[in-house]
Amino acid sequence: MKENQKTEWKESWRDDYLRWVCGFANAEGGTLVIGRNDRGQAVGVANAARLLEEIPNKVRDVLGIMVDVNLVVEGGKELLEIRVDPYPNPISYKGEFHFRSGSTKQELKGAALSHFC
Description:
The chain is built from three helices and six strands; from the N terminus they run E-H-E-H-E-E-E-E-H. By secondary structure, the protein is α+β, with helices and mostly antiparallel strands. It has one domain: Schlafen, AAA domain (Methyltransferase, Cobalt-precorrin-4 Transmethylase, Domain 2, 2-Layer Sandwich), CATH 3.30.950. A four-stranded mixed β-sheet has the order 1-2-4-3. It has a two-stranded antiparallel sheet with strand order 5-6. The model has no long low-confidence stretch (mean pLDDT 95).
């Protein structure tokens, strides 16, 4: 299992990852998994119950979209899967437009942003 166009792994949650959610929404959609390291191993996430409430609210308040946040248990460790649908309109994170390309998140600027919007 590897990260790809539709999958990104992070060991723990940071609000900065709203940029990744934005990137998925502006591309083909995808899943951000919290509690998995870069090698794909489940490491678990602290405060999963709290994050199950906080993440959907932050996504709604900052990005203006809705996502599915699901608790998954793997090898006795709790992981969160944030499933993001593609959106037909450009989604911004605090005025920045991000896009998922391959296994990277790109900030759209200049001509790329003009072409996208």
